[in-house]
Input
Amino acid sequence: MNIMDIKYQNPIVLAVIAIGVFFLIQAIGRWWREQQYSFKAKTVMITGGSRGLGLVIARQLIKQGARVVICARNAEELQRARMDLEQRGGEVLAVPCDVTDEFEVKQTIRIVRDRFGEIDVLINNAGIIQVGPIAEMTLDDFEQAIKTHFWAPLYTTFAVLPQMRQRGEGRIVNISSIGGKVSVPHLLPYSASKFALVGLSEGMRAELAKDGIVVTTICPGLMRTGSAYNAYFKGNNRQEYTWFSISDSLPILSMSAESAANQIISAIKRGDAEVVLSIPAQIGVKFHALFPGFTSTILSWVNRFLPEAGGIGSDRAQGKDSTSSFSPSALTTLGDKAAQQNNQFFEEKSEMT
Output
């Protein structure tokens, strides 16, 4: 190796070392911030906590010593979730509540305060998924999505804010979606309302920081939560359910609910501004930011392969009522397993055994 080679390689070696040190310092900083916050004896309220991602987050929080409040509309689902959590040794309060109703939200917050005191962490997780072409979507679909993904988090946030401000601390977590960053065909009410939630969440973080309140926005990509069973499908509902449930189950394209919940909890402890979950979702968000026009063109091509309007039209059917020869199948095995584990459906015969 001659002198010129040494001179040429030294800057490259130094650059590699500098990059390595930078990422190491970042990792240490993230770890340190995570260690500064504990959920032990904290009261955490999770909307939509009776099944899916909300239930998985509740399970992991119980392991960390939190007092967990779960709320959802279905009282039977809530009781099954409560028993699941209590069997894991948790201190749990399950309150039936329609979070799109401001009065019910205020009543729920009062019940929580009477039992556990003030809420330390609010996780706005409740959601609704409507799948189908825009030709079959109605104004009611958009109104339901906006009520669930925008107004409901606003109601719960306004209900806990006065006490958080008074204490000078609190954490609010808004579970949005990759659909709140990149609008996906056949999910227009969902995407539009999740975009609204991202805007709300980002603005709240900026305004509430001075009050000691930390707001975190979470944008998961595809997750194996079993949510396809309870999503609503319109038009050619069986075909819509097939592509949606398969996409939601594939191991590389989607991430497990447990992994997502673990990353969400770590992000809350660190007080991160925003976290996009899964590598495919991160790539998608960055690509869209750099090439918005090209992203739109790609999605328009994807849309050509999705089911046409027709079928049941603007009526809707849940995923569990829209099965086909392809779903459930070997392609949806992981998603089907997640649905069983995460209270997405309940067979009467299981109750009798």
Remarks:
- Residues 3-35 form the longest helix (33 residues).
- The domain at 37-352 is CATH 3.40.50.720 (Rossmann fold).
- Confidence is low (pLDDT under 50) at residues 348-353.
- The longest strand covers residues 213-220.
